[in-house]
Structure formats: C-alpha cells, structure tokens
Design brief:
Blueprint: H1 16-21, E1 37-41, H2 48-62, E2 66-71, E3 88-92, H3 106-121, E4 125-129, H4 134-144, E5 152-156, H5 159-162, H6 171-180, E6 183-186, H7 189-198, E7 205-206, H8 222-228, E8 234-239, H9 248-259, E9 264-269, H10 275-284, E10 291-295, H11 301-304, E11 309-312, H12 321-328, E12 333-336, H13 341-344, E13 351-354, H14 359-370, H15 372-390, H16 392-414
Parallel strand pairs: 1-2, 1-4, 2-3, 4-5, 5-6, 6-7, 8-9, 8-11, 9-10, 11-12, 12-13
Helix pairs in contact: 3-4, 4-6, 9-10, 9-14, 12-15, 15-16
The structure holds ligand GMT.
Length: 415
C-alpha cells in the first residue's frame, strides 16, 4: 500500500498557509493530519454518487488521511457529529440569493468554497464526484489558489456522462473541465468507454465502487423479518431514488409475476418521483398488501439482511451500487443487462441479467434464484465476489495510488 509521510511541506506550496489563514470568518482550526488532506465534493442527496463520496471520506479517514466533504448540506449517510471526530469534516457551500438571480450561482459559490477550504485546510487535492457542475467549480477553484497545490480528480458516476453532462447547454464547459482535471475516473469499464467517446478524452481510468465488508454483512433478524413476511414468503427488495430510469413500476410488475407462482412480499426502500406511481400500480395489480414502502434508510444493512432477492430493473445504470451492497449481504440480484451492471453481477452465478423491461424474464429469474439449493449457492457466491472484487482493501489502494500520482505530477510540473 502507498505510504504517505507525515505532513511534509511540498515545494512550491509553502506560501499557501499565509494566504489562507488571512481569510476571516472561518472559525475552525485546520485538522492535524498525517496523511493526505483531500477535499471531497458531492451531492448530499440520497443517490449513489453521494453515498460513494461519503464512504470514501470515511475510509480515507480510517487510513490516516483527512477528508473534507464539501456540499450544500450534510450528505445523508454522513452522521452530523459522529464522523467529525474521525478526521472527516463537513464544509457547507453558501449560495447567495438576490432578487436579480433567477438561478442561484451554485457553481461559483462551490468554487469559492473549494478554494477557501483548500487554502485554510491546506488540501493536497480535491476529488469531485459527479462532473456537473462540480468539475467546473473545482477547476476554477484550482486557478484561484496556487494551481500547483491543488490537483483535481473527477469521478464520473453515470448520468453526468449519458444525460446531464452532454446537454448542449453545458456540454462544452463540462468537456473542458474534464480535460482540465488532473485525472478522470469512471465507476465501470462501460462508463469509462462511454466517457472517452462522448467527451473525447484520452484517458479515463476505471475505478470500481466499493463496500466495506466488515460493516456491510448479513445480520439475521428473524423477528424483524416476520413483521413483513410470513415464514413461507420470499422477501424481494428494491432500493433506489425512484427516478424514472429505475423503472420502479417494473419492480411491482415483477412481484406480481412472482406471486402467481409462490408467496412473496416486496420492500421498496428509498424515495423519489416515481414512488407514488409505483404504489398506485401495486393497487391496480392487486398486490398492494404485499408491498411495503419503508422510505429512506441511512443504514442499509438491516434492510438488506431481510432480503432474499434484490431487484434493479433500471433502463440505465453505470454501476449499480445498490446491487453490490445487496451482494455483500448475501442477496442475489436480478437486474437489467445494461451499463456497468454486467461488471458487478455475474449472470447465473451471483444473480441474473435480463433485457430492460423483460418483466416475465425477470420474474422467472427471481423464481430460479429462490429455489432453495440454488439460492444458498448464489448468496454465498454473491458475498464472495463482493468481497473479493469490490472490498475497500482492493479499491482504496487504487484511489490512494491515483492521489499520489496526481499530487506528484502537478508539483513536479511546477518546480
Ligand atoms: O448518474 C446518476 O443519476 C447519479 C448517480 C447518483 O448520484 O445516484 O448514480 C450513478 O452513480 C452510482 C454510484 O457510482 C451508480 O451506482 C449508479 O449506477 C449511477 N446511476 C446511473 O448510472 C443511472
């Protein structure tokens, strides 16, 4: 593993202390840190990129680095106080409002905050999650502080590459910010390939999302399970932000197909625009009494531990973090054969991949996965692959190595 020496001063960056300490109104002292000081920029809302960024901040702290999470509110998986003692700090972006502004200038406010945190906390680099608009803000912030002191790493998460980032209204700015980034990563080979093509980037490094196998493991709770399901009923689970691409209606349709053959219930975890539609569909299909909407859950472990099969019939999914978290808890996955999902789920081994909108196919796959002997083998293999291929011990060294590389390269370039 990469070793990081103590907070050794780096050539060319010595002056930043004075420059930043001069900024009034920041009440906290910089956190003493033996590793790298990393700014992490993300969306705080329920959603994969914010979850990955939050887990990364925690994991970096565990490894002796300091993580400074920058967003407009505390990310939902970051405890308000709990993480603060662990070298994870939160910095809120303050967005000005003024009658003239029909749209709040968030991109500028974020750049301002990144630069302020970089100076005051002496960040070694900033790592933005989701390019829109974070990469633009980070590159601007880098120009505002001493450029040799603030490498920018941008991680693409999905719709920033397939949807929002390629909107003609912002595409050129996003492309520019990616080209200006010191490194661009993507969470799957499929997304990396897509990004190279649509943004015409030479190098996009694939670094998979990860799970902590120690905290995320199956913990049986028969009493809790019995509140949702009779002893003979299978528990199907879907967890998402219920955006249209998640096809929450298809989750309900798959349940309806399954209950024609055997008893089952469905837990719907999370919240979002299509939750109401899914509920009405459950009523229309006569399965509403078997569908439990359990809302947003900060700790997914108890929920995943109730499940027998995880459903993710999305139209698009660059990785499918929910699927990986399910696998870590011994839950086979039935999902669409799109984007990065085939890199996470091995068809017929840790779950089943079926074409998007293939309700009957997915229903049949759920029944196959629930066959007792097959289920036991798949559950075990799902956990094994999650740990072997995606655990923190495998992925974090790749991120640390990338950080060391970009820090060294930028400093060497400026000497
Ligand atoms: O791309 C998005 O819609 C946002 C993003 C999010 O914040 O939820 O989701 C993406 O990032 C996750 C973490 O890397 C991936 O697991 C999801 O597959 C991906 N979503 C899509 O590609 C639709």
């Amino acid at each position: 593993m990469t070793e990081y020496g103590a907070s050794s001063p780096v050539s060319g960056c010595e002056g930043r202390d004075e420059a930043c300490r001069a900024r009034p109104g920041v009440g906290l002292k910089p956190v003493p840190c033996l590793g790298l000081r990393v700014g992490i920029v993300c969306y705080p809302s329920q959603g994969g990129s914010g979850v990955v960024a939050t887990e990364l901040a925690r994991e970096l702290a565990r490894r002796g680095h300091c993580a400074h999470v920058i967003s407009y509110q505390v990310p939902f998986r970051l405890g308000r106080f709990g993480d603060m003692r662990e070298n994870v700090a939160f910095h809120q972006v303050e967005v000005p409002s003024y009658p003239l502004f029909q749209y709040p200038p968030y991109t500028v406010a974020l750049a301002n905050k990144i630069a302020e945190v970089a100076r005051y906390e002496q960040l070694d680099l900033v790592h933005v999650h989701y390019a829109v608009p974070h990469a633009v803000s980070a590159v601007l912030a880098r120009s505002m502080v001493l450029p040799q002191c603030l490498p920018v790493v941008t991680t693409l998460h999905g719709t920033d590459t397939t949807l929002t980032g390629v909107d003609p209204g912002i595409r050129d700015a996003i492309t520019w910010s990616l080209r200006q980034s010191d490194a661009v990563t993507a969470v799957s080979d499929a997304l990396a390939e897509n990004a190279r093509r649509v943004f015409q980037l030479d190098a996009v490094r694939r670094i998979y999302n990860f799970i902590d196998p120690v905290t995320l493991r199956r913990r049986h709770d028969r009493e809790l399970r019995s509140r949702f399901a009779a002893a003979d009923a299978a528990v199907l689970l879907h967890a998402s932000n219920f955006r249209p691409i998640k096809n929450a209606g298809d989750v309900v349709r798959i349940l309806a197909a399954v209950v024609r053959e055997r008893p089952a219930v469905l837990l719907m975890c999370g919240d979002g625009p299509e939750a109401g539609t899914a509920h009405r569909l459950a009523l229309d299909l006569g399965v509403a009494d078997r569908v439990h909407f359990i809302g947003v859950q900060e700790d997914m472990c108890p929920v995943l531990s109730l499940a027998d099969v995880f459903l993710l019939p999305s139209s698009e999914e660059s990785f499918g973090l929910g699927a990986l978290e399910a696998m870590a808890c011994e839950v086979p996955v039935v999902c669409s054969n799109v984007g990065g999902l085939p890199e996470v789920v091995t068809d017929g081994v840790t779950g089943f991949l079926r074409p998007v909108r293939d309700i009957e196919g997915m229903g049949t796959a759920v029944l196959a996965a629930l066959a007792p002997e097959r289920h036991a083998v798949m559950a075990k293999e799902a956990r094994r692959q999650a740990v072997h291929r995606f655990s923190t011990s495998r992925i974090l060294p790749q991120i640390e190595a990338l950080y060391a590389e970009v820090v060294a390269a930028r400093r060497a370039a400026e000497v």
